[in-house]
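Model: Ready when you are.
Researcher: Fold this.
Model:
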Amino acid sequence: MNKRNLSYLVAACLLLIIYVHCGPEPIKENGFTRANYWVPDIPPQAHYTIDCRIDSSAALLEGTQVIRFTNSTPRPIHRLALDWAISSDQTLEITVKGKPVPIAAEPGQVNLPSPILFDLPQVLRPGKRIELNLKFSRSLPALGTQDKIKLTVWHPRLWWGFWTHEDFEVKLQVPAEYALATSGRLDEKSGYYRAQGVRSFGLYLGKEHKAIESLAGEVLVRCFYIDRDVELARLLLSTAVDVVNFYGGRFGLYPYQSLTIIPGDDRPMGGYPVATGMVAIHGQQRFTEVPDTHWKWITAHEIGHQYWLEYVLNKEPIDWGWLMIGMGIYTDREYCRARGMSDRHRGMMQGYIEGVRQHLDTTIELTAEQLDEVDFDYNNVVEHSKGFSVISALACVLGQETFDRIYQRCLQEFAGRRLGTHEFQAVCEEESKQNLGWFFDQWVRSNRYLSYQITSQKSTKQENRYVTDVRVECLGTLKMPVPVVAYFQDDTQQLQFTDRLLEVNVLKFESTAPLKEVKLDPHGELPLVVPPPEMTEKELSKRTDQMEWTGVGKQALDLFHKAQELNSADFNVWKKLGLTLYDGEYYSEALEAFERAAKLTEGQAWVIVWQGHILDILGRREEALQRYREALERGEGINSQHDQYHMRINREWVEERLKTPFQRQ
């Protein structure tokens, strides 16, 4: 080391010593550095003990609450947030060990939006436990004016920016005219409703409501209703008991100790999960307007969300997310299949198929900004219809046994945790031992659609056997293995899958009995868009751009005909079609493509050179010479390079073509 470098090193060490001894010292409490608010990847699971009453005369809910939790993270916690607002309608007081805890606010600020921040009196070290005591109230202006009141965000709760699982003990005093339903199960001795590992604890108050109940194993199922709807209430209750028992057997568990069904809106348009252990079914007073299968399906559907959304939490940017909805619908499909009601799920896919036909962008994985720009019913078309279609297609291609392992593993590993697309894909790849990027990229991260069709079938007898060839063509933009089943007259059947890398598959079946029929996707597991939607100029451009430069002659020919129909004015479409049609030896079509391309540009003379190439191949030498001369006269844009043919076009190349006709190598 030279003297100059040594002097730099000494100076740096001196500066470091000065900084360490004289620099600003971080604030510490009990040996831990004080930090701003931060969010653990897996927050501590808290226990809430709530005592409250609802005063109908004052239209007020008020109560006390104790929040207990242990810091299960590796870092100290100094600052916490609560999902609660402070205003003239809501109040809050916090104490720890009898001492008031101030809430972070600007001087003179009275109203505070959610979430609100507060500092703990002492840093909560990893492994240490804390008890927060809260006194709160909120007004209920709807009380007295409505017969049905649903409350989901009704008490202060630790806020982490996403849902977590918590444990609850809740005791309530409610006006005598209201029946009370909650997310918990009543402990008769203590008077508390208890629930463990729940996303949210919901309350429902109904005037003149009654409840009927039954057990599904150890799960208490209750259905609230008014007198006129008692017949439907009995159907919903018996269905719910059957569903809970079925799910427990099919999936190995039912995650909660109670389930409550409450009335929803007036129209029979479905339902929704109100909170953990509580679902609403719409249109109960119009029971006879729809068949019993509707009520059975919607009950199974909403209970499915107790697994996907309540037990396993959503990590997608939308509140529920395609994955929770898709897995929930897959769950209720298993029940419907077992009870002979599978047709409904083909209808579920139809909403997505119609969206494709309307040329809607059904890409699932969008940014928040892109979602803001969506101007159609994204919830129904994409989140519900496509979400289920993706899960159904995945189960189809991976097989029932593999998908069952994926389902069970997600339930076990993500109970109380958030599951998103990337975590789900990782589980699928680990269980299937496959790289599934091709599947998720097409289905989740693109607007591609699935369209396959059997275009021919031929069966011949060879000695004592029958050989059947089935031709299956890909008509859409999404490529995946699709099931094809051949049925024979001896009641046997054979299943084969197409190869996703081939545009055209010819499947061979050998049998001892004559062929009866062939079906593609016989169980209706795939959202096949057949026939495919009419192509737009935008899609034509996109599909042409995505096409390879060689070996795609048939695909190029199909796109050529589409470009003719649309009378495309896109130079890039025609130039690429010209080259790919030439590659596939569709010379007449390639010539027309280059002629159309030449009309759309003045500065790309090389497309005129290519006209000469093709005319030479077709034996039309005089016309070829005219094209070469025209290209030389234009001059601009005559240079081009085509590495797939080791060809470099320039002025010398064209002048040589005047002497020697072009020959394809």
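Researcher: Now this one.
Model:
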Amino acid sequence: MEKNSPELLRKTLKEFFGFDSFKGLQEPVIQNIYSGNDTFVIMPTGAGKSLCYQLPALCLPGTAIVISPLIALMKNQVDAVRAFSGEEGIATFINSSLNKSELREAREMVRSGKTKLLYVAPESLGKEENIDFLKEVEISFIAVDEAHCISEWGHDFRPEYRKIRQMVSVFGDKPVIALTATATEKVQQDIQKNLHIQDAKVFKSSFNRGNLYYEVRPKVNAEKSIIRYIKENEGKSGIIYCLSRKKAEEIATLLQANGINALPYHAGFDSHTRAENQDKFLMEGVDVIVATIAFGMGIDKPDVRYVIHYDMPKSMEGFYQETGRAGRDGLEGRCIAYFDYKDIEKLRKFMKDKPVAEREIGSLLLHEMISFAESGVCRRKQILKYFGEEFEEKQCNQGCDSCKTPQPRVSVKQEMIDLLQLIGHLKGKFGHKHVLDYITGIRSDEIILYRHDQKADFGFGKFRTRAFWSSLLKYGLLYGFIEKEIENYGLLHTSDFGNSYLETPVTLEVPEDYDFTKERAEDNTSTRAEAADPQLLAGLKDIRKRIGKDKNLPPYVIFQDISLEEMATYYPISLEDLTHLTGVGKGKAEKYGQPFIAYIEKYVEENDIIRPNDFDQLVVKSIGNKSETKIFIINCIDKRIGLDDIARSKNLSYNEVLNEVESIVKSGTKININYFVDGILDPEYQDELIEFFRHSEIDDLEPIIQEYGDVYTIEELQLMKIKFINEMAN
């Protein structure tokens, strides 16, 4: 059979992978690789990039080296190929997770000629012993997966990727295949130049993922919103992305507290934990992974039904690739991002210590992300335009929030003329900030340097807000009136289309931007409207007072005010319902809850109140702030470790630990600190203080400090208050 025979490729496709036909551009890509040519593949997630190098690797003599950025990604790919083959040796990997004997075994498999695909991290590839070993091996080609990691203009930039060309050059003149799911024109050029494959044949698929629905929400009560959404989609797989490891763990813990099967994932975990959590997600042991961007590259889970960005990503490339992990099977996929200007300011602060060039690039990428969130234009059109692809909004078919519920439109004919004329006068020498400063009359350092504040028309657009002009500028870029030179840090100039518009201007209407500040205020108003029923609340307080009197306990020990307010808001009528409320654990619900739910049930019936069917979706069980610290403290208390020792181990003050323990107890969690209290205070002193707390009407330390402050320390009094609430309330 001839080397370039399409029959061989199709036969292998059917016998090995079980497919009857190729998808999209796969066949010409594979044929080009099989023919020994340099190849550049740009395909969206789910389009079948992996097959593009796996299939020719199986058909060609020798071993293909696949350079991959993440250990988890390699493991996933190797497992998939082995599953197709049934032969363990057909694919393997070399990375830092292997011990000496595993590394020796992997090398032997490659030397034996059984291995057709060898996955390596760029860091491992650069080690001298690995280079020496690979010089002994017949190499079919070099595949660089997730090639966007090469470019500083893309996302997930990794300096080691820029050294790949010099590392692989020692193996001789081997074909190089670069593959990525995201690449703007600038990133594409950067990749090709760095890998020395400027003459490579480029295969670029459409970036449109028609089965995905895109939505941006204001970041108000985001945790509650996320929990409701997940519970409405119970049993479906989803990924939640956070920018920090701490936030990923906090959100995962919050979901767990609300009965959602979730696990965190980030690079701070050891390799065993990362692999274990990833496998549980892939094998449907958990429904939700809460992760940093360390999770997801190349993860072959086709049935992820939603991707939620708790924090906005730093770039459009990152957003596109992460949302692309939804709906890889072609079925529904929902992509929800929460936007908050405060998060953007945090991202800007993260960049302030970076080198100037890197900071400029990061600011440009972040600006694109802000524009995407704010713009009322079709989300899909914005994404595709970013990657150089034209798209008509009507084809979106209500596949994003902007098309499903369009923003009001405003006429901007004269304003567009003014904007284009200014950009033309500036002769393409300035970026968006300078243009907006000029229009709105802001005397920035750059404006003063170029003496633009002395121009007669300086500040001509003051009658409109800066947000309006920013929106118009985004519209001009999106619809081709204005062009941006990315490689020159976003310098703006009018396009041929923009110039022709100036010659014969026509009426122009554009959708208003989303005003997330306004939506925040509206959302807060609606939250306040969800207030407690005053008549019911008064009745619940009477019950609490009566029970407190019967049991010789202050009312706040029975239930805190916040617990009663939530009862009067959500109308719980079972002990299970009560456990969803703030400050109510299972023990407290069983101990004191029955009279309250009986009263609420009767009240609901007498007043014809329609209770929500999805009570647990309306009420989010809080875990408070610093959840990681709280969990650590609870675990230490279970092991009978002293609170002072806990403080030292966590680098906290003793007072901070006491406050955390009090918060834990007030949240309804019962703990046993008697082992620690008994080592500080004799039983008779404890009894005296307990009796004082029993008759205290308010949840405050001040009265007991006035009474016993000269006998006990404030810390001892707080400790006894914690013991009292814990034993009497929980």
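Researcher: Key takeaway?
Model: The chain has 36 helices and 17 strands.
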